[in-house]
Design goal:
The chain has 319 residues and is of the alpha/beta class. The chain has 3 domains: 127 residues, P-loop containing nucleotide triphosphate hydrolases (Rossmann fold); 71 residues, Helicase, Ruva Protein, domain 3 (Orthogonal Bundle), CATH 1.10.8.60; 89 residues. The protein is built from 14 helices and 7 strands. Strand 3, helix 4 and strand 4 form a beta-alpha-beta unit. Helix 6 packs across helix 7 and helix 6 packs across helix 8. The chain is elongated.
Length: 319
Amino acid sequence: MPMSARRARRNPAPQALTVLPSNIRAIETAYQFTDGTVRFAAVFGPSGWGKSTLLAHTAQKFEARPECRLIHSSALDWLAAGGSAGEADVLILDDVQDACKTLRHRQRFRQAIERRVRLRRPTLLGFSQHRPDRVSRELLSPRRFWSTVSINEPSVDDRVRIILQLAGEEGLCIHPSIAQVAAIRLCGNGRSIRGALKRLRFAKADWSREEDLIPACGVLLPHLGGPDGWDLRDVLFEAVGDTLSQQGLDCPKLRDRVFCWMAMNEMGLPEDEIAAFMKSAPSRVYRQAASAKRSMESSNQAEIATACKSAAMARLQLV
């Protein structure tokens, strides 16, 4: 069944697009495609870092032109609907790599795109891959007609900007230190970041104070990590141990009690998460935390907890 131009894809309004060094060339190419300076363009980029959002923004520009017959779709859906080269004035296809997995699809797709080039019909393609490979270069034929750009994975500074923008979209107010830790230690791509921020938002909306860093990291624990085996609980455990040692209280049992209390009360971690780290039972973790709490209330050890918290925050800001 042919795909109806202008009604090929009815997406919700695209998310905001952050201009970054990693995507500025792709954004410039999209603008050139919109104003007709570039007729044939291909955008490459890893999944989850704004390629589809950029294509959606570009499609939105053409949707505002009543005389323009637009098709904005995935490449596979377009092929399944017939893949007519001349049906649309403007063709915007995402996830083109999925249309390259079988020889039959690849040949059909290439023939249709080559025909659009001959007809000089504007075509914008998106590939969820870091850079062109042999197969994609064969599709973009003749190559002299095509502008190819890549969206790179953002740097840490770019990720901070993305996190702060997405936080605003989610109704969150977060301290820059939280954004910095998340930019370095949040695993995954832009969609993963949004999921982590939704988790923060579910807990509360205002994380704007510097002292919110430790509890925010506790909420984000399932999302934090890295290939080096970094663990948030290690940061707190080492901060507690070093602080007690500096105060002449180099006692493993006291260290464990204070750690369990802080992990539960400052980070908000459940007993089973702490127990897994301590290689202990949740009931024992609860008793240790309760013992530490009684000590804090009946002596000057509250100052020790404050010192441990400060040390943990300082370590987190150096990740």
